[in-house]
Structure formats: C-alpha cells, structure tokens
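During the no-cost extension, the postdoctoral fellow (Dr. R.K.) reprocessed legacy sequence entries with the updated structure-token encoder. One reprocessed record is reproduced below for audit purposes.
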Amino acid sequence: MNDMETEARRLLAAATEDMPSRISLLDGFAAARRRDRARRTRRGAVLSAGIAVAAASVTAVTLTIGSAPPALATVTSALTRTLAQSYHVSEQNSSYYIWNSRITGRAHSTCASEADPVRHLAATSCSNGVRAREVGGYTYLYITDPVDHPGRHWDRIPTTSLGDLPSINSFTTATPQQMLAEIKKADKVTVVGPASGSGWTGTRYAFSGSPGTAEIKLSGTVNVDQQGRARALALTIRLTGAINVFVTTQVLTFSGFGALVTVTPPPADQTFSGP
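Re-encoded structure tokens follow.
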C-alpha cells in the first residue's frame, strides 16, 4: 500500500468514527484508531472549525488581480471581499472511497458558522459533534472525552498558536481561505452562466486544475452576486491511485453579510489547556 492509499484510508476511518461499532469499513484499523483517537479528535476539530478561526488571515491569500485572467480575478476578488466582513456560512461535507471499483464507505456532515474577522469572533457547530468558538484571542474546541480532564470539554488554545492549518493538498477539510489559495492555481476558470438565490442574482463560474500532481484533481463552482460577493462555493477533490479513488466535496453557502456576531467563551469550569 502506498502513502496516498494509506492517507485516504486514514481519512475515511476518521470520517466514519462515529458509526456503530458493529459496522467496520476498514478491518484491521480499529486498534490504530483507538490509540490515535484523542489526537485526531483535536486535529479534526481544528480542521472543521477552520472556516471560523482562519477568517482573519484572508489577506495572506489575496491575489494580485491585475495579473490574473478576468474570470479568475472576479472569483478571487469576490471570495476575498466576502471573507473580509462578518458573515454566516453553512457547509455540506461529503466523501466516499472506492477500492477495487467498489465504494467501501461514505461519510457526510453539516456545519454552521458565523464569523467577524475584524473583531476576531467566530463560532462553529457541526452535525458530527464538532464545536468551536473564537473569542478574546483564544480558540475553544469541544472535545467529547478529553484525556486527563474529566468533566471539562472545552480545550482553550491561543488562536495565534494554531498556525497554518493543513492545506487542501493534504486531503483535509479546507477552509474558505485555503480554497481561495488553491483556486488561484486552477488551470481553467470559465463563466458558466447566470446564478440566483433568495434576494440576489449573479454569475456562476467553474474552475478546474491539478495542483502539484496529476493524481489530484480539483474542480468546482463559485456563485458571485451583482455586488461582487461570493454566495456559494463548491469544491471537489479527487485523489486517484492505482486501484483506489478518494473523493471529497465541500459546499459552502454564504449569507448574513455585515450581521452582528456575538460569541461568548465557555464557562471557566468547563475549559482546560493542554493536550
């Protein structure tokens, strides 16, 4: 088994971790998953919560619009503008793994987030139990069974210490900022046609490319309204090996631009610091 196959199988195991114990999609991996559960739970929370906690870093991935093709410039400008103001975002995550031409597992989750990058406030809640808050310079991650901290479920971490989250090239859940960085590398960005939603009209753009290696294919769409804001972003990553395929899709829907975001830290007696 090569490194690419190993990584895809590990991600599938993590995605299906909350399934009933009688269902085993990856025989032989149970012991390793138990040993690594605490570490991956925390890492998974950081990744899923990245939509909220990484918003303030949007300037790091802003494209020099003057040097870009018109369609790419429009898409990146819209995402940059959207992520620089307060907003709400709903997220649909899905993935599946194909081994020897057979689908061996599927995973799905939904998340809802609100963020105010200017005030460094954010909150995220997901259907798989992931919860996170950013307030007062700290990011709080909800851990179901923290090691050595009975009765306390919120891990308090200085936001600045989180550093850069793994990129899309690591086949992890990507933040909108990471999506923007990858879209900049797209081989092709084209106008698809008109797009519309509740109270807005605009244009849909499609993009595709192979960032860094032929085994990885990314594709997706971005809906941009007449005010130059991104309303929806869909991204699919397809990782192809010799006899296996791993596919993950994220769909983000933005709304509530300029809305007041209020986030409070968890009670002190429910928080802890450390692994």
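The chain has one domain: 3-17+29-272. Confidence is low (pLDDT under 50) at residues 1-68. The remaining legacy entries will be reprocessed before the final report is submitted.
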